[in-house]
Amino acid sequence: MPQLNKLSAACTFACAAMLGAAPAAQAQVSGDVIKIGFITDMSGLYADIDGPAGAEAIRMAVADMGGMVAGKKVEVLVADHQNKADVAAAKAREWFDQQGLDMLIGGTNSGTALAMAKVAAEKKKPFLAIGPGSSALTNEQCSPYTIHYAYDTVALAKGTAPAVVKAGGKSWFFLTADYAFGTALQNDATTAVKAAGGSVVGAVRHPLSASDFSSFLLQAQSSKAQILGLANAGGDTINAIKAANEFGVTKTMKLAGLLMFINDVHSLGLKATQGMYLTDSWYWNQSPESRAWAKRFFEKYKRMPSSIQAADYSVTQFYLNAVKAVNTDDGDKVVAQMHASKVNDMYAKGGYVRPDGRMVHDMFLMQVKTPESSTTPWDYYNVVATSKGDDAFTTKAESKCALWK
Amino acid sequence: MDAPADSERLGRIGLWLGLAILVAAPFIGLYPIFMMKALCYAIFACAFNLLLGFTGLLSFGHAAFLGAAAYATGWLVRSAGWPPEIGVLAGTAFAGLLGLGVGLIAIRRQGIYFAMVTLAMAQMVYFVWLQAPFTGGEDGLQGVPRGKLFGLISLQSDIVLYYVVATVFVAVFLFIIRIIHSPYGQVLKAIRENEPRAVSLGYDVDRYKLLAFVLSTALAGLGGSMKTLVLGFATLNDAHWSLSGEVILMTLLGGMGTFAGPVIGAFTIIGLQDFLADSAGSWVTVIIGVIFVVCVVAFRRGFVGELLAWQKRRQSSALSNSKDARP
Amino acid sequence: MEIVGIPLQALMGQLLLGLVNGSFYAMLSLGLAVIFGLLGIVNFAHGALYMVGAYVAWIGLDLFGINYWFALVLAPLVVGALGMLIERTLLKHLYKIDPIYGLLLTFGLALIAEGVFRYYFGVSGQSYPVPEALQGSTDLGFMVLPNYRAWVVFASLSVCLGTWFVIERTSLGATLRAGTENPALVQAFGINVPLMVMLTYAGGAGLAALAGVLAAPVIQVTPLMGSNLIIVVFAVVVIGGMGSILGSILTGLALGLVEGLTKVFYPEASSIVVFVIMAIVLLIRPAGLFGKER
Asked: Are strands A363-368 and A103-106 parallel, antiparallel or unpaired?
C-alpha cells in the first residue's frame, strides 16, 4: 500500500538523520588542537605491514614529543578504509570539514591514497603518503600538498634491478600481477635492468589473487633466465615464492621480490626465502637508533616493525617539528616548512623533500639470510647495497610532475 | 471506512515529513557528503529492488552496471570535458545499454541460473575494467571535476550539489512508484507471483522482464554516475561483486518489494560502514554477515515489510474489534 | 616439436598442472554439488568451510602437534560437526521457501567466518609444511612434479569416485536421493529423513574441509582462501549441472585443463575463462552439461 510506504519514508529519513548526525555531533573548530588523521587498511590484505600497528607508531611519535606542540594538544584520529576509495575519501572529507583535521597520513592502497590526496589538496592541508607505492602521487597526480614519504615503485625497481644485474643476474623473467601496480613495477624494473646492462627475456602476467602459480612458474623456468622478478605484492608474492620452492625453480633461478616487507619473509620463513633480493627503505637492524625504536615496538606487538610503520613514526615527528618551527598548524605554512626541512632520525638520514613532493632518502638492497646464518629472531637481512637518495627515485628528466620543471 | 483514510493521512504526513528532512538536511547538521553518498546508493538499491522486489529476478552482478556508468561519466567529464548533466545522462544510457546486452542473454533463464548468468557476465565486465587503461585499474579514475550544471550553476559547493542529488533521488523514487502503479507494473508483479500464469494469460513475459532489467540497470547506473560527481572518482570497488552482495543486503534489510525499504537499507549499510570505519573496521564484514543471517532467518520482510505487517495486524484487529462491538 | 608455437613438452607440463588443479576443483565442487543436489541449498559458505578445514589442520599442528595424516581425518570431522550445527539451527527453517534465502544465509555465514578468522589470524596467512613422506619431487622428463601434487590428484580422484559411487550406486545413496525427492514417503518407510538431511550437509562440509587440508601445504592458509575460490567453484557446479555429482567432477577436471591451456596462451584471462564457459553453457544447455532441470 503506497500510503504506508510513505509513512515508512518518514522513518527512513528519521533514521538517516540519526546516522548522519553522528559525525555532525562532533563538529569542532581546530583552533586549539592539532589533529592528525590516519586512514589505512586495518583489516584486509595490508593490515600487517601498516594497519593498527602503524597507528600505534604514530601515537608513539606524538607521545615522544610530549603530546603537545607549539602550545597546542595533539590528537590522532584513525580510520579503516577497508580498501575502498569511497570510504577513504568520504572519511577524509568528513574529518577536514567537520573535525578540523590539520594533516592526513595515507596508509596502504594506492587507489585510496590518490583519492585522499585530491581531497587534501582541495582543502589545502598536507597529505603525507606512507603506505601507497604508486609513483603517480609525485608524477601525473603531484600536488603542492602531497608529500610521498616512504617508498614508491620507481625506487623499488631502481634499488633492486641494477644491483642484482651487477651481482651477476643479467637475464630476467618477470612474474607480474595483472593490474596497474604490477605493470608499473614491471615497467620500472625493466627500464632499470636495461639501463644496468641486463636483459629481459620474457614476462607472464597472472590474475590478481591467483591461488596457483605452478603453470606461470613453469613458463618462467623454461625461459632459462637467471632472475625471476616478482612484480606483485602481498598474498600473491607469498604464494609465488612457496610454489617456486616446491617446483625447484629456486634451484635454477634467483628470486627478486620487487615489493616485499619483512612480514612477508617472516610469514614464509627463511627456508623458502633465503637468497632473495629485495629493496626496502628501512630495516630494524640497520642502526642503533632503529634498533632502539624497534625494540619498543616489539615489546608491544611481539613482532618487528615494517619500514612503513617506521615511516609512520618518522613522518609524524617530521610534521610536528615543522609545526613547531612555524608555530602554527596552517596548511600552507607547514607544507612550505616541510619542503625546507631535512629528515634526520631513526628512519632516514639526510632526507629532504623535492618540489614534486617526493621525500628523497637512501634505499637499501637486502638479501635474505640463510637459516643457518640467522642468529636472532627476525634477523633476516644482509644489507647488500645502498642507493643514495638522488639516484634512488625518479629523476627530473623522467618526472611528469608539472610542479618540478 | 475509517481505517484506510487514517492510514492514507498518516502516509501522506510521512511523505511530507521525509521530504522536509531531505530539504532541511544541510541546515539541521546532517553532513552533506554522507547524505549524498547514501542517496546515490539508495538510488542503486531502489533500482535493484525494482528487479528483485517487484519482478522477482535476483541479479548477482548489479554492481557491474553501477561501475560501468561511474567509469563512463568519470571519463567523459574528466577527459572529454563534457558538462556534468550530459555526462550523467550518458553514463545512465551506457549502463542501460550494457543492461540490454546482458539482459538479452540472461532473461531466458530463471531463478538461480539467472543469478549465476548475471554473476558470470558481471565478472567478465569487471575483467574489462581491470584491463582497460582508461579506468586506471586499481588506482581508479581520479580527479573528476564537478563542473557547472547547465553551464551556469557551479557544483563545487557541497550544499548545491546536495540539492541536485536530492532532486534526482526524489525524481527516481517517484518514477519507480509511477512505474509500479502503472499497468506495466501490475504485469511485473503478476510475473513475480506466478510466471506461468502470466504466460498463459498471453503476456510476452520475456519482453516485460527485459524492460524491467534495462530500467533497473539504467537507474543503477544513474546512482553510479552521480556518485562519481560527488566523490570525484570511480574505482574497481564500484564494479566488484562484493558490492553486488551489499545491494542485495540493503534491499533485504530494508524490505523487498516496498518503496522505502531499499532507501532505509542503503542508509543503514552506508552509515554502518562509515561509523565502523572509525572504530572496528575488521568487524564490518562480520557484522554485515550477521545482519544477513538474522535477516534471512528472522527478519525476511525487512524494516518496512515488518512495519507494514504490523500495521496490517493492527488494522485487522481494529476492524474485528469494531465488528465485535456491534450488538 | 611445437604446437601453435609452444613446445610440446611445455604444453604437456601445463596440462599436467591443469589436471592437478582440476582435481582440486573437482573435490571442492563435489561437496557443493552434493549439498545442492540432495538438499537444494546453494551453499555459499562452502569456501568458508574449506578455509576452516585448513585452519583446523594448521591449529592442530601448531598447538597440539597433530600431524597432517590425522588432520586429514580430524578436520572433516570437526567441520562436519560445525555443518550439523549450522543445518540444525539455521538452514532447516529455509527448506520450504525460495532457495534464494538459503543462498543469502550461507553468504552471510561465509562473511562471518572470514571476518572472525581475519581478526584472529590476520591476512598474511600461515605456512603449513608439506608432510615428510610427500616431500621432494619427481623428474618426469618434461617437467619436475612435486610429489605432493601427485598425491593431491590421487586423493581427490579417490574421494570423488568414492563419493559418486556411494551416492549413485549404493542403497544408502538411493535412500538419500529418495529422501530429498519425496521426504514424506521415505519417512513413512521409517527412515529418519531430517537426520539424513543433516548428515548430508555435514558430509558436504566435511568434503570441503578435506579439500582445505589438502590445499594447506600448497597455498598459504589465509582467511581469504575461501572467498577467492568460491565463485569459481560455483561456476564449475553450474556448468556441470547443479544436481549432478558426476557433472561437477568431470567439469572440475575439464576446467583445470582449460585453465592450464589459457595460462599458456592468454594468462591474464585464466581467472575469468570459467565464467565465459559458464555463460556459453547456460545459453546452450540451461541445466548444465549433466544436469536435470529441477
From this structure: unpaired
> In this structure, how many other beta carbons lie within 10 angstroms of the beta carbon of residue A120?
26
pLDDT exceeds cutoff 80 at B237: yes
**Taking the alpha carbons of B219, B225, B226, B227 in that order, is the dihedral positive or negative?**
positive
Judged by CB atoms closer than 8 Å, whether chains meet at C278 and B120 is answered as yes
Single-letter amino acid code for the residue at C8: L
By residue count, chain C amounts to 294
Q: Which of C125, C229, C264 sits opposite A238 (nearest CB)?
A: C125
Residues of chain B neighbouring A180 (CB-CB closer than 8 A): 136-139
Give residue A387's Cα distance to chain centre. Answer: 18
Calculate the alpha carbon distances from C65 to A270, C73, C80, C121 in Å. 21, 15, 21, 19
C257-289 pLDDT, tens per residue? 998 888 888 887 887 888 888 888 877 887 778
At residue A68's C-alpha, the angle toward residues A67 and A70, to 5°, is 160
Mutation for testing the B interface, residue in A1, A12, A15 having most B CBs under 10 Å: A12
The mean pLDDT of C194-198, rounded to a whole number, is: 86
Residue (of A208, A197, A193, A152) closest to A393 by Cα position = A152
Q: How far is CA A183 from CA A176, A191, A238, A242, in A?
A: 7, 12, 18, 22
Helix or strand run (H / E) with residue A344: strand A342-344
Q: What pLDDT is recorded for position B326?
A: 56
Contact call for B292 and C235, based on CB within 8 A: no
Residue A186 near residue A229 (C-beta atoms within 8 A): yes
Query: What angle do the packed helices C46-64 and C8-39 form, to 10 degrees?
Result: 110
Chain A residues whose beta carbon lies within 8 Å of the beta carbon of residue C260: 215
A21 touches chain B (CB under 8 A): yes
Q: Between C163 and A208, name the one with better pLDDT.
A: C163
**Residue A67's CB: how many other CB atoms inside 10 A?**
11
Strand order in the sheet with A342-344: A342-344, A349-353, A359-360
* CA-based nearest residue in chain C for residue B108: C283
pTM value is: 0.84
Can you spell out the DSSP letters for B173-240?
Answer: HHHHHHHHHSHHHHHHHHHHH-HHHHHHTT--HHHHHHHHHHHHHHHHHHHHHHHHHHHS-B-GGGG-
Q: Residue B262's pLDDT band (boundaries 50, 70, 90)? A: very high
